[in-house]
Design brief:
Blueprint: H1 2-23, H2 33-40, H3 44-50, H4 54-82, H5 87-102, H6 105-112, H7 120-139, H8 148-168, H9 174-195
């Protein structure tokens, strides 16, 4: 049974990687299941045994990414609970969480480019907004006296922009991105406090 599952997993990974490779050159809407099967060196029957259509493949790629980001975010929340109020602690915890993005920049670049899923950036925004809401009590954001939802949309939109930038500028590390995000965020919080 394990051998069969491993073969299935390997075939599905091949199909997903082939789809991502095709998306580097073609708009997703123009990619066909025949192209995917041919480039994956599979027959169509095998392809359809694993996925209903190309949208099913894309959905699985995205789902796998979001699932992979769940555990690092949960770990980040636990680390923040144990971190001091020190800016450096929170920044290093965010840098560790951002490693999941660093490890998936190839996938993110394809999904966020013009050939990718036009809905993915919105899905990423919503995914991160939900995580941000879980982080608020730990980060003390509830105590700022501002519209938390508005602040979240502002900050997470910025983070999504940073991730998009990162896909094009790979020389930066997760620590660099966390440093930038926290430098901007610290000034935002100072500005918000001055509005009172």
């Amino acid at each position: 049974m394990n051998k069969y599952k491993n073969k299935n997993d390997k075939t599905e990974k091949n199909i997903m990687n082939t789809t991502l490779t095709l998306m580097q050159s073609y708009e997703f809407s123009n990619i066909t299941m025949n192209q995917i099967a041919e480039n994956a060196k599979l027959n169509r029957v095998t392809l359809y045994r694993h996925f209903d259509d190309k949208w099913d493949i894309l959905e699985r790629i995205e789902k796998d990414f979001f699932q992979a980001a769940e555990a690092p975010h949960q770990k980040m929340i636990e680390q923040l609970k144990n971190a001091s109020e020190d800016y450096q602690d929170a920044r290093s915890v965010l840098a560790e969480f951002l490693e999941i993005f660093a490890n998936n920049l190839d996938i993110l670049e394809v999904l966020m480019n013009d050939n990718g899923d036009s809905r993915f950036t919105s899905k990423l925004l919503n995914f991160l907004l939900k995580r941000e809401k879980l982080s608020h009590p730990v980060l003390g954001i509830n105590d700022l006296g501002v519209n938390q939802e508005m602040l979240s949309y502002y900050e997470i939109s910025g983070l999504v922009g940073i991730i998009k930038f990162w896909t094009k500028h790979r020389q930066y590390k997760a620590k660099d991105m966390a440093d930038f995000f926290f430098a901007v965020r610290t000034n935002e919080v100072k500005g918000i406090k001055q509005l009172k």
